[in-house]
Amino acid sequence: MTKYSQIFIASSKYVQGRGVINQIGEHISLLGDRVLVVGGKTGLAVTRSGRAQSLAAKSIFQVEELFRGEVCDAEIERLTAVAKQNACNVLVACGGGKAIDAVKAAAAELKLPAVIIPTTAATDAPCSALSVIYKENGEFDRLWILPKNPDLVLVDTEIICQAPVRLLVAGMGDALATWFEAEACYNSGALNISGGKITASALALARLCYDILLKYGLQAKIACESKLVTPALEKVVEANTLLSGLGFESGGTAAAHAISEGFSLIEEMHDLTHGEKVAFCTLVQLILEQRPPEIIQEVYDFCYKLGLPITLADLNSAQVSATKLRQAAEISAEPGRGTHNLTVTISGDVIFDAIMLADALGQRIKNGQPIV
Ligand SMILES: [Zn+2]
Questions:
Q1: Model's pTM, two decimal places?
Q2: How far is the CA of 32 from the centre of ligand 1 (A)?
Q3: Which of 96, 102, 179, 283 could form a disulfide with 358 if both were Cys (CB 3.0 to 4.6 A apart)?
């Protein structure tokens, strides 16, 4: 690998649609015949009947194991032991981000195929070759770049639309950053997670992700509120799960994610989802980059319409001290953080001022005042 390599990575197979859980047996039969299924209570429950019937039809043995809630080394070891005891040759995750990351890591340990059945569209974890590992007490430990992406990602939109609307919208917040971060990395020549430069394909997929959100985001939210699987919902689920996943992994992340990492210092934000924080931090990135005012307006309007945060008050942080916000900004400006993947010179002060301006612009939008 040289600094001239362009690298694109992806899951081997992506299946999406209404009721596709009923086809899981056909797809898994190509990978193995003894399956360890890991998930939280809800993740296991909402996939159970379709999974049982479909696996039985292909004579595939399955054993369920309840995920204990944290992606830590102890839990990954425990899951690998359960897989070995049952002589499993495929690992399946049913659920959200953490169960998915634990199964991807355990499958990598065992060198076995990983199958991901996300039950929400809240994150872009399902398709990536990356697990976020925490310590047993819940503190961040490390990012684990896995040797390969999942072998199968199966997304049943009938299941996804039963999950809380807030999770679908949060997924749109995370996906909103994808295009702006990928383009920033492309322009600055930053490397993506697999250590290569961005391909034109990854950039195009990231752009498609943004276009789908703008065009279908609100319709998808409305459909999800009524638990309806519509073409708009299908497109947004694809944007949140597949396009955002491919876009961030083969595109790269920049200031939106780095500033949201800095925000982990602020306790008042702990009840917010990853995607909600990333949405606001995308606005901050656009300000840092001096994007055209029309683009900034477009992204504010999108977030406001969808109910994504556009002010610090929306992030429960109107009362957070300037000192604390400045500390968060300093963290996101540390060497090696994604803020340095922009083409502008970064410091804690520069980021702090952009956060405060993002908040001020958000307040103007809410008061019906122009920002262009
Ligand atoms: Zn993200």
A1: 0.96
A2: 31
A3: 283
